[in-house]
Write a structure and sequence with these properties.
Number of helices: 11
CATH class of the largest domain: Alpha Beta
Strand content: 15-25%
CATH topology of the largest domain: D-Maltodextrin-Binding Protein, domain 2
Protein name: LysR family transcriptional regulator
Order of helices and strands: HHHEEHEHEHEEHEHEHEHEEH
Helix content: 40-55%
Length: 301
């Protein structure tokens, strides 16, 4: 008796069809039939009742199916345990977009040097979406901006990472290119590019700080950060970006974009990470989180 035979028997019973089971597992129908028939011969019992409508487990087949599911579940648990011990597997996290551009590439480098078998899957979104993903168990943890509503979510545990502030990106064609700062009233007159739902709804980011009373002069909206920077570089558009998280921005480093503080409005904020209080964190998740924390500490130093 082989694990593969038990698995294919379970698949045939699951889909009530050997042909469908073959299709789902990218195998030929004859291969699955041959495997199940050999299993039946070895056990000396009939596991499946075969009709023109498909297959169903016999009475003894139902009992074998229950034991098969227990065995395969145990095998999966053993595999997960072994992956956990050798820091292998996939880790799903959520974060605000600037984190993905800034911290994640350095973290990936650190992981490749110490934990080659970790696959990191990152979903970007506004802070409210990041919180939702972690609360719902979609992501193991998330990196976001600390916003007021976060305190009321009892499903999440928040830990601060660093402080940042929003500054205005301007290009060489902007009338404020040579300025050291800009007032909020001056900003309102400039053509502004909004990112996703910025200034459209409260999503835990910039909109929560500024509100929706005095909106910038939004002339374009996109979900592509690189497009925003390119348009600022080649025209007189402006947009908000975090100062600290954009420190190594290619456009800033190349001198194509300058970052101006808003002189009459406080736009500081705190970035941290959230973990779920409902779902257990695995060792591999902690490995990734610790590498991210190390990256932030290294940059801060």
């Amino acid at each position: 008796m082989k694990f593969e035979q038990l698995y294919l028997f379970k698949e045939a019973a699951k889909y009530h069809s050997i042909s469908v089971a073959a299709e789902k597992n990218f195998m030929s129908q004859s291969s699955i039939s041959y495997s199940i028939i050999n299993l039946e011969k070895e056990l000396g019992i009939e596991l499946l009742r075969r009709t023109n409508a498909g297959v169903t487990p016999t009475q003894i087949g139902e009992l074998v199916l229950q034991k098969t599911e227990d065995i395969l579940k145990a095998v999966d648990e053993i595999n997960e345990m072994s992956k956990d011990q050798r820091n292998a597997g996939e880790v799903n996290i959520s974060c605000i977009p600037c984190i993905c551009d800034w911290i994640i590439p350095i973290t990936l480098q650190k992981l490749s040097e110490t934990s080659a078998e970790i696959l990191l899957s990152v979903t970007t979104g506004e802070s409210s979406q990041v919180a939702h993903n972690v609360s719902a168990g979609i992501s193991k943890f998330g990196i976001l901006i600390n916003y007021g509503e976060l305190e009321r979510n009892t499903d999440l545990r928040y830990t601060p990472l660093f402080q940042d502030e929003y500054v205005l990106y301007v290009g060489a064609k902007s009338p404020y290119w040579e300025k050291e700062s800009i007032t909020y009233s001056e900003l309102l007159k400039e053509p502004y590019i909004a990112y996703r739902d910025e200034f459209r709804k409260y999503n835990g980011g910039l909109t929560n700080m500024i509100g929706t009373d005095q909106l910038p002069n939004i002339v374009f909206r996109t979900d592509n950060l690189d497009s925003i920077k390119s348009m600022i570089t080649h025209n007189h558009y402006v947009a908000f970006f975090p100062r600290y998280m954009s420190e190594y921005d290619f456009y800033v480093q190349s001198g194509w974009i300058r970052r101006l503080p808003i002189s009459d409005k406080a736009l500081g904020f705190e970035v941290g990470y959230v973990e779920s209080t409902k779902y257990k964190t695995k060792k591999i998740d902690r490995v990734v989180l610790n590498r991210i924390k190390e990256t932030v500490e290294t940059i801060n130093a």
